[in-house]
UniProtKB/TrEMBL annotation:
Cross-link 3'-histidyl-3-tyrosine (His-Tyr) mapped to chain: 340-363
Function summary: Decomposes hydrogen peroxide into water and oxygen; serves to protect cells from the toxic effects of hydrogen peroxide.
Coiled coil: none
Name of protein: Catalase
Record CDD domains: catalase_clade_2, GATase1_catalase
The EC number(s) this enzyme carries: 1.11.1.6
Any one annotated GO CC term: cytosol
Names of the cofactor(s): heme
Organism name: Oceanobacillus polygoni
Domain Catalase core: start-end pairs: 29-417
GO molecular function: catalase activity; heme binding; metal ion binding
Length: 681
């Protein structure tokens, strides 16, 4: 038996090194290695004659181009990925025998892919949608894939309905409209007629559906899995990723404008942060329930439309994920990476969650068509760091060259190898759960409560978040043409909260609900983003200034931002350099034409002696936009006068002045993220 290599945080990077090629300063060749003498002109019969079939270089180049695209994912097509490392805080040996969860000194290499769900590959990052958060751990026992979303629940309870929800929320088939949104009839028709979706849809209407960045986005494994320790004892478990910068979102008007200004906003934020050394970090948490407590709750713990309230089942923080390296080639890594919830290691096992059971079939099936056959595990980004040995052979794109005549089991010609490994040798043994029952198409009655946890979520929201949810329902249902569907949805959410449903009904022109609302009074404060961690670090400030600005004072402020790990870009009316007093020069990063207030977390407005009317109007637009989106605004010198003229001085999150006091107050305002108590008209 071959020796298992030592896995460390650089193992995957070292493995990928053999596949990396730098074409710079090299002579051009064909794919067969033949040097090419001409790459701009086809081989023709005379200067004005036909192209000849013997032009093998043309044929090879064009054939490869014609086949460069592979099928995009049906869902999660729009993605962005990065490499990183997972570090364990404490051993989980009492709960699981998974080796990467045993030793805090071992660092496991990972690859993470974030994504939207509904949109095509060319759609915008900034849409109202669920987000994927999939992590591939390259462990010494094989690859483990934690295929998570940024919401802890899902639309459906059974995998057999997955085609239905996707068909419903995708663009309508008769005209392929609209793109990357659920704001249309077929989606809401599905919701109204499949009320198990009520919980997920409430999350979808919340601020969670428009995350500010992947760096400030939570992740949830959704399903109930099992931890199994080396004694064979099992616990039920749910997985959590918690961003160390806190969980933050956009506001809807801002999101729509960002989608036009920069549809790559989230993926660019992730890429730029890693390039600048602002490595995204997420703590890894688990919720654990003993098997004896499986039926101790007022919900079924196997129901994927339910979460485990943290007040009842606390999240235990056990490790940290750090993303520290961007991909070298988007297609080869981010696009070709293949995740599957069935890629597990000893110590992590499945449950009878009916949606999980469906996914265990579906994911392998989709990779076969998308990546061209059964050997997708040999693509470098998918290849395990540890060796793999079996009797599988041939197929499209086979890269492994297996030696010897034997490709079957049992055999005597190769001493019956490769041979199965016993459990003590690391062989995966499924948890021996006793299962009995009649063969039926039925679901336990414990799955039938579709509204109690929706009310729990609603009760947990702040007044601002509740207003956003009402606005989101009103926007989405306002795009539904069929009035009966609108009414059906309002009546459905009357089962949750009559005030919510009545307000939405007013906005979309239907009758108030006639249904009886849930009597759940419980709340879960951790579900509200109002209670998330706040930080000023890595936020981005737009600095608006013109020639003649107060040089030394502005330098002091910008240095204060730098020291506090706050990024900034200078904005003026023209590219080049702006010059302030004392000959202080600053390079202009963006102009009013090339950027927008929605692309920044805060605005610092300064002005300068050479400001004209056009500059003032542009600056005023930036400030008003930032104010409307509840963002911090700082002002010095001319900027203070402009804020006074707009009656913004003294508003929450608006800071004016100079010196260290101003810097401190402005940074505090930036750290607060949004100032919801602002009077916005």
């Amino acid at each position: 038996m071959s020796e298992t290599p030592k896995i460390n945080e650089n193992s995957k990077q070292e493995q990928l090194e053999q596949f990396r090629v730098d074409d710079a300063n090299q002579k051009m060749t064909t794919n067969q290695g033949l040097k090419v003498s001409e790459d701009e002109l086809s081989l023709t019969a005379g200067e004005r004659g036909p192209t000849l079939m013997e032009d093998f270089h043309f044929r090879e180049k064009m054939t490869h181009f014609d086949h460069e695209r592979i099928p995009e994912r049906v869902v999660h097509a729009r993605g962005s990925g990065a490499h990183g490392v997972f570090e364990l805080y404490e051993s989980m040996k009492p709960y699981t025998k998974a080796k990467f969860l045993q030793d805090p000194n071992v660092k496991t290499p990972v690859f993470v892919r974030f994504s939207t769900v509904v949109g095509f590959r060319g759609s915008s990052d900034i849409v109202r949608d669920v987000r994927g958060f999939a992590t591939k751990f390259y462990t010494e026992e094989g690859n483990y894939d934690l295929v998570a979303n940024n919401m802890p629940v899902f639309f459906i309870q059974d995998g057999i309905k997955f085609p239905d929800i996707v068909h419903a929320i995708k663009p309508e088939p008769h005209n392929e409209i609209p793109q990357a949104t659920g704001a249309h009839d077929t989606f809401w028709d599905f919701v109204a007629n499949n009320q198990e979706s009520a919980h997920q849809v409430m999350w979808l209407m919340s601020d969670r559906a428009i995350p500010k960045s992947y760096r400030t986005m939570q992740g949830f494994g959704i399903h109930t899995f099992r931890f199994v320790n080396d004694q064979g004892k099992a616990h039920f478990v749910k997985f959590h990723w918690i961003p160390k910068l806190g969980v933050h979102s956009l506001v809807w008007d801002e999101a729509q404008k960002i989608a036009g200004k920069n549809p790559d906003f989230n993926r660019q934020d992730l890429f730029d942060a890693i390039e600048m050394g602002n490595f995204p970090e997420y703590e890894f948490g688990v919720q654990i329930i003993e098997e004896k407590d499986e039926f101790s709750f007022d919900f079924d713990i196997l129901d994927p439309t339910k979460l485990w309230p943290e007040e009842d089942v606390p999240v235990k923080i056990i490790g940290k994920l750090t993303l520290n390296r961007n991909v070298d080639n988007f297609f080869a890594e981010t696009e070709q990476v293949a995740f599957h919830p069935g890629h597990v290691v000893p110590g992590i096992d499945f449950t009878n969650d009916p949606l999980l059971q469906g996914r265990l079939f579906s994911y392998t099936d989709t990779q076969l068509i998308r990546l061209g056959g059964p050997n997708f595990h040999e693509i470098p980004i998918n290849k395990p760091v540890c060796p793999f040995h079996n009797n599988q052979r041939d197929g499209y794109h086979r890269q492994t060259i297996n030696k010897g005549p034997v490709a079957y089991h049992n055999n005597s010609l190769a001493a019956n190898t490769p041979s199965p490994a016993s459990e003590s040798e690391g062989g995966f043994v499924h948890y021996q759960e006793k299962v009995e029952g009649k063969i039926v198409r039925s679901r336990s009655d414990s799955f039938n409560d579709h509204f109690s946890q929706v009310k729990l979520f609603w009760n947990s929201m702040s007044p601002t978040e509740k207003n956003h949810i009402i606005s989101a329902f009103s926007y989405e249902l306002g795009h539904v043409k069929n009035m009966a569907i609108r009414q059906h949805v309002v009546d459905m959410y009357g089962n949750v909260d009559s005030a919510l449903a009545t307000e939405v009904a007013k906005n979309i022109g239907v009758n108030p609900p006639t249904t009886e609302e849930s009597n759940v009074t419980k709340s879960s404060p951790v579900l509200s983003q109002e209670n998330t961690f706040m930080s000023h670090e890595t936020r981005k400030v737009g600095v608006i200034l013109q020639n003649g600005f107060q040089g030394e004072e502005v330098k002091e402020v910008l240095q204060g931002l730098n020291v506090s790990k706050i990024m900034y870009e200078t904005i003026s009316d023209k590219q080049g350099v702006v010059t302030g007093t004392n000959n202080v020069e600053l390079k202009v990063d963006e102009t009013f034409t090339t950027t927008g207030a929605v692309l920044y977390d805060a605005i610092y407005i300064i002005g300068g002696s050479e400001v004209d009317e056009a500059f003032y109007k542009n600056a005023e637009h930036f400030v008003n936009e930032a104010f409307k989106h509840y963002k911090p605004i700082g002002a010095s010198h001319d900027g203070v006068k402009w804020l006074e003229e707009s009656n913004l001085i003294g508003s929450p999150g608006v800071v004016d002045g100079s010196g260290q006091k101003f810097i401190k107050q402005f940074i505090e305002a930036i750290g607060a993220h949004r100032h919801w108590d602002r009077n916005v008209i």
